[in-house]
Design goal:
Shape: elongated
Order of helices and strands: HHH
Radius of gyration: 24 Å
Largest sheet: none
Number of helices: 3
Structural class: mainly alpha
Distance between the termini: 74 Å
Strand content: under 5%
Number of domains: 2
Helix content: 55-70%
Amino acid sequence: MKIDLSFSLKQTKLMKLFLNNILFVLVSVLYASTSYSLPTNRRGEQCHEKSNRQICVKRMNIKKYNLLKGNRIQIPVIPFKK
């Protein structure tokens, strides 16, 4: 009885590839669901230097809720000064 090893090798490689892709997607989804914006106390620290802290915190809260809903938000990029 002759066993076709090439088919079984192809099949095992395909199964490993499929399993790796499924695990990668699963880990990505789990990690993405736990990484959100700044906590409340950190938002207050970020707005500490602003002239009107309450408005700054309110804007950050609105951005957080929009982000959690899935809406796009604009994040300003501040260039690094040496």
